[in-house]
Amino acid sequence: MTLTIRTLNSKDKMIRTIRKLYVQSFPANERIPFPVILHMLKEEQTELLAFYDKDLFVGFVYLYHSETMCFLYYLAVCGELRDRHYGTALLQSVLQRYADVPVVLEIDTPEESVKDISTRKKRLSFYQRNGFRMTPVRYLFYGADYTLMVHGRDISREEYEREAEQIYHRAARMRFIDPLPVSVLSE
């Protein structure tokens, strides 16, 4: 599957479509306010990528990259196109684009005690099938429990904290906690 990628700016005609998919795809407590995303597009390291299969819009990726790391904030595929391998194609495109640095993402920590454990495990499995590994980096952010995953070389908690502080400007709102046992992460 070959997809076309368009890098969008905050004034692009696709922004309304992206925003609608963004709101449909992510719970409110996991969404950065959309005006903040648009503002961040002014920074050279931030990209909002729209993906097309011929003329059909299939999804988007929002990411932030530095010289040492690429942080994948959001990846979303249009609802009617899910389960057609577009998510894998979007993710593989990002991995090729940033092959020279580790690509990191945060995932809801897959603990058995949460209501949406099956969704969390499905998401975890998707990223693992695409070569991502769990890291020992786990933190609370606005009350949500996240674990960091990485593709490429391993990163330490300290390295991520430096990047979060320097690039994402969110470390002050994070409270790092102990990682889950390996047995929970591999189920």
Task: Characterise this structure.
With 187 residues, the protein is α+β, with helices and mostly antiparallel strands. It folds into two domains: 1-101, Aminopeptidase (3-Layer(aba) Sandwich), CATH 3.40.630.30; 105-187, no CATH class. The chain contains six helices and eight strands; from the N terminus they run E-H-H-E-E-E-H-E-H-E-E-H-E-H. The chain has helices at residues 15-25, 34-40, 86-97, 117-129, 157-168, 182-185; strands at residues 4-8, 46-53, 56-65, 70-77, 103-108, 133-141, 144-151, 174-177. Strands 1-2-3-4-5-7-6-8 form an eight-stranded mixed β-sheet, with helices on both faces. The chain is globular and about 40 Å long. 24% of the residues are buried.
Mean pLDDT: 85
Radius of gyration over alpha carbons? 16 Å
Q: What's the structural domain tally?
A: 2
Number of strands: 8
Distance between the termini: 30 Å
Helix content: 25-40%
